[in-house]
Amino acid sequence: MKLSKRLETILDMAKRWVSGQEAEGQNEICAADVGTDHGFVPICLVERGIVGRALALDVRTGPLLRAQEHVRERGLQERIELRLGDGLSPIEPTEAQLVILTGMGGELMLRILRENAQVRKSVRGFIFSPQSEQALFRHGLEDLGLAIREEEMIKEDGKYYTVMMAEPGRMHYPLEYSYRYGAGEIQRQPAVQKEYLEQETGKLEGIRRQLLENIKKGNGAAKQRLKEVERDLEEVRMAKQQLLK
Fold it and tell me: 52, CA 20 to 30 Å: which among 15, 60, 193, 200?
């Protein structure tokens, strides 16, 4: 099955997490894919021998029916169970050791984690890929007692995606830019991250030039916005320095 680069990155990170679970074999591990859509992630997790069984979850009937069809085509009905429901609610505590939660905004993902605390606390590993609000999401993980162990940024079809692996534990970054862009020491692809930061720098510098022009024309409101942009530029600069250490 040919997958996108983003989905392959998610699968590779799941494989690394499973390989680090020395106490039990991969056949004993159950992975839950929240918002499974077409069901390709749980199918590949099982077919490639990364996990023994999987749960494919979705809040919508349509995607779940498509996933069900794909599971049947691959003859995996005995190893992949499809469940309809919101977030982690279809999962019983201790049922899944690994949860994959991707393709959503950071705020929605945090809501899912907060609303199902009993299930969340029984999970040993998470794979996340927030589509937005990454600073908010990293702060939220810290508040929930989850620590990001590694991150990988990829570029696909001109867009940048961040995939994270997290486990229960303590996490705290001393400076805010690490919540926004990630800690450099856990980046698996610093070259891609650096390219992204360079792009962000270019965007912010363009906004800064336009704001300076607006200030010259007497736009007082642009002064406050300029302070915010200059702060953002400083955070990008610090993040780039961190990657070069």
Answer: 60
